[in-house]
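Table S4 entry, Flavodoxin-like fold domain-containing protein.
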Amino acid sequence: MKALIVYAHPSPASFSHAVKESLKSGFIDAGWEIIESDLYKMGYKACLDRYDYPTYTEEVFNIDRASTQALNDHVYDREIEIEMDKIRAANVIAFQFPIWWSTTPAILTGWLQRNFPIGFGWPDPVLSGKKVLIACTAGNNPKEELEAAVKLFARSFEFMGAKILPYIIITSVNTSTQEGRENELANAREVARETAANFQTAP
């Protein structure tokens, strides 16, 4: 079994990175293989554009026609093809990211928009049978605001057939104590371990 961890924070010294590593450890504890997309480390291109579809030649860029042509030609930008292979291989896709300006980082939004074109994410539900685990960190944002941001992000994956697992939302990161942080990291690790251990039996 495999977990794809998509991570969207630029600093390896961040608490977000520590949460990501805790998720990774939890899956490994359960004997799972890890696939990772560290978007900032990869230098991942955040903007969807016509260059994602090498065989598209129309003067005016139309995303529906471009992605349909790519589907028919079986040709996408190589960066997209690599991520598609990771998505296909994963049983669980876990996301870790901070909430900035009440939304997901632009690089993560780009990952979503670029990697699920017509014919891959929908109408053929490539995520059917897969589960999505979302863990986010934030400063002192109201919990309801964070839940709204995560729900909006999760909606796309639910539409494409994935089961959305309960969110891990960690608030007040800037003012939390060492003990509080350690507890959050332990919880993230345990959630990942349980997600993996119960994958076949959980509804």
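The mean pLDDT is 94.
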